[in-house]
Design goal:
The protein has two helices and six strands, in the order E-E-E-H-E-H-E-E. With 90 residues, it is of the alpha+beta class. A four-stranded mixed sheet has the order 5-3-2-6.
Length: 90
Amino acid sequence: MYIITIHGQEKEGAYSVTDDDGDQILYLFDEEDDAMRYAMMMEDQGSPEMHVIEVEDDIMIKTCEFHDYRYTVISSHDFVIPPKEEHDFI
């Protein structure tokens, strides 16, 4: 799996999206290419340079569940585009 962070601020948190209820949802990408494409779309919208990081599937999901973070796994069959609003990091 892969997460997206701000280049140079990898320890500050991972990219998340705020849903309609105001909850932050961490995006976990199955494929590196999909994460890279999403990061490039974010940069095209004015985000700082992004960094895609590979993470261990089980460890990341267990960490999210332990800290009660909401997450979603983006598979190669999903089509997601960055929202035009401000991006969040958790």
